[in-house]
Write a structure and sequence with these properties.
It is a single chain. The chain is an alpha/beta fold and 245 residues long. It has a single domain (4-105, 152-243), classed as P-loop containing nucleotide triphosphate hydrolases (Rossmann fold, 3-Layer(aba) Sandwich). Helices cover 35% and strands 19% of the residues. It is built from 9 helices and 9 strands. It has a 6-stranded mixed beta sheet with strand order 5-6-7-3-8-9, with helices on both faces. Strands 2-1-4 form a 3-stranded antiparallel beta sheet, with helices on one face. Strand 8 and strand 9 (213-217) form a beta hairpin. Helix 8 (223-233) crosses helix 9 (235-243).
Length: 245
């Protein structure tokens, strides 16, 4: 169930496109983004605009800057959210449930859950997160516990670099979680990632953020796949280039 079907950039609402966040290379040339799959990946180099775009999109969808569910407000903000005023979203079906994950603010989110547990019934508070504090689990365990327990039912899940704390094995486990939720016809995922493991999800659409804008690419055409494969196929050549004086 692809709830969100199109994102349009309304540049006529911007007085000066030469200031941040409108001048970010991958964003400044954006026109519209068609969404026809349940799983969408956004790839690209650091600084291309992936996170900036995703934060604005999540904010436009009703999530707050710090991440979490719609009811969560960590009191964080970012100038990148100004980009949300430029976005127009088209829906097949408006959805209010879901989650926005920002790897860089995950600690703040885990702390927020702990504070709730001190004020309310800890068992009920921690149940959607594996039954215990996310801060009592390793970083990778906490991420996977969040995905396995909190991600359920109908929802739009917007994730910024979820692989940040996941080993390759746990990335594969995460792919199974995505598969199960999508198979039920209830979940839509929009994920910014550098991981060639995650981007390999069958049937996903991959958009590449580049200086000239955004384009759809095949998995094998992504820089992440090509560089990883080239390195694994001939790491000695890379080491010779990197380490020889």
């Amino acid at each position: 169930m692809a709830y969100l079907k199109k994102i349009v950039m309304n540049w006529d609402r911007v007085d000066d496109r030469n200031v941040y966040p409108y001048n970010v290379p991958g964003i400044s040339h954006l026109g519209s983004l068609e969404i026809d799959r349940d799983v969408i990946f956004i790839a690209g180099e650091n600084g291309a605009g992936k996170s900036t775009f995703l934060e604005a999109l999540a904010y436009k969808c009703g999530f707050t800057a710090g991440g979490g569910g719609r009811a969560v407000d960590l009191g964080l903000s970012d100038v990148s959210l100004k980009l949300a005023s430029v976005l127009t979203l088209s829906w097949r079906q408006k959805i209010k449930q879901g989650f926005f994950l920002r790897a860089e603010t995950f600690f703040d989110f885990a702390k927020y859950i702990d504070e709730l547990a001190r004020d309310y019934d800890p068992k009920k508070v921690y149940k959607p997160y594996g039954g215990k504090s996310l801060n009592e689990q390793s970083h990778g365990e906490a991420f996977l516990s969040l995905f396995a327990n909190r991600f359920g039912g109908r929802g739009l899940f917007i994730l910024d670099e979820p692989e940040a704390a996941l080993s390759p094995q746990r990335q594969l486990a995460f792919l199974r979680i995505i598969f199960d939720l999508v198979k039920e016809g209830k979940a839509q995922f929009i994920i910014a990632t550098h991981s060639p493991i995650l981007m390999a999800y069958p049937g996903a659409t991959i958009y590449s953020f580049e200086e000239g804008g955004l384009k759809i690419v095949e998995y094998e055409e992504t820089d992440h796949y090509r560089l990883t494969k080239a390195f694994l196929d001939n790491r000695e050549r890379f080491f010779k280039h990197l380490f020889d004086d």
